[in-house]
Amino acid sequence: MTLPQRFVVTRAEATIESTHDLAEEAAGHLVAWGLPPRRAADLRLALAEMICNVCRHAYAGEKPGPLRLELIWSEDDITLSVAHQGVLFDPFSVKEPPEPDPEDPSTWPEGGMGLMLIRQLTDFIEYYRSGGWIIFSAIVCEPLRQTVSSSTDGHDDA
Fold first, then answer.
1. What pTM does this model have?
2. Residues near 86 by beta carbon (within 8 Å), at least 6 away in sequence
3. Nearest Cα to Cα of residue 35 among 142, 152, 111, 155
4. Chain segment 61-111, per-residue pLDDT in tens
5. Which of 2, 4, 136, 153 has the highest count of CB atoms within 10 angstroms of its CB?
6. Domains along the chain with CATH numbers
């Protein structure tokens, strides 16, 4: 029977220093579930950017707060979710930067590149509140190809 794969990890404090390890751990699960390593590397990059955005913006000027990372690979898609309890930020309010002129550095954007990267590496994004959390999800249309005998639940480190 084909079942969704799920990995969840919670950190008491979202820190820039933990970004690489969290994204790497998540990518390792994706590869173990059968996602090609090159595609897992793309999604690791998107996740790292999502986590960095929480650390830099959701908890900016405050003590770092909790972060929950969740991956779900269902029969139809992969959902990458990063949840926090910090400042609300709507990624839909950020417009894509205009196409820069490669010959003119003054046209190169200084911000917003992370969201552009996430959008390019995934198929669509969602942003919502649920149970006291602010959740930013990126969805990838990648059907589950692996048949498993039981669900693989992740762990939860507080």
1. 0.79
2. 14, 54, 57, 58, 59, 60, 62, 65, 134
3. 142
4. 788 899 999 999 988 899 999 999 998 877 666 666 677 777 887 776 666
5. 136
6. 5-140 (3.30.565.10)
